[in-house]
Amino acid sequence: MNVRARLALTSTVLLVGAATSACGGGGGAPADASEKDFCDTQSSLFADLLPEDMSAPELPSNEEMAQAVKDWGRELEEVGTPDDISDEARAGFEQLVEQAGEIDAADFSIDKLEELEQGGADASEAAQKEAEAFADYLTTTCGDPLRDIEMPELPEMPEMPGSTE
């Protein structure tokens, strides 16, 4: 699994997990964050998990991923959301923060992802709408967090003997 796939996997676990965990609660995060602080914090997980040496990237372990997500969840709760977020999207944010705090290394296994995907389909309609509303707000406000990740260029392949190209 490459770095980009691993980061996408992380966001999938969190967004699907947020839709399945809709336990309520939370609400303690500020509701007056600047858009810049909100977006910077949202994308910080991906920046923190990127290997320092992209020419020979080493993927973080499931334990490292889980700890990074827990730390990120605490940062999200500390920063909060901008005041223009809808109530539905705010509820999705609170679900995400709660899910980030409860994640563990086992949540990054393929079996667990499949289970979460099935659970996301079975989540209440309200929980699904809240998670979707937050995902839409996040994309509209901050863009795609994976868009700006610079991936290393692949080395050129040597010509094969007898190749006509």
How would you concisely characterize the structure shown here?
By secondary structure, the protein is an all-alpha fold.
Keywords:
mainly alpha, 165 residues
Describe the protein's architecture and organization:
With 165 residues, this protein is an all-alpha fold. The chain has one domain (3-142). It is 60% helix and 0% strand. It is globular and about 50 Å long. The model is unreliable at 18-26 and 151-155 (pLDDT under 50).
Spatial shape: globular
* E-strand count: 0
Order of helices and strands: HHHHHH
First-last Cα distance: 30 Å
Which class do the helix and strand fractions yield?
mainly alpha
Rg calc: 18 Å
Q: Main beta sheet, described?
A: none
Figure out the total of helices: 6
Overall pLDDT level: 74
Portion in beta strands = under 5%
Helix content: 55-70%
Pick out the low-confidence regions.
18-26, 151-155
What is the count of structural domains?
A: 1
Fold blueprint:
Elements: H1 3-21, H2 35-49, H3 62-79, H4 87-102, H5 110-122, H6 125-142
Helix pairs in contact: 1-4, 1-5, 1-6, 2-3, 3-4, 4-6
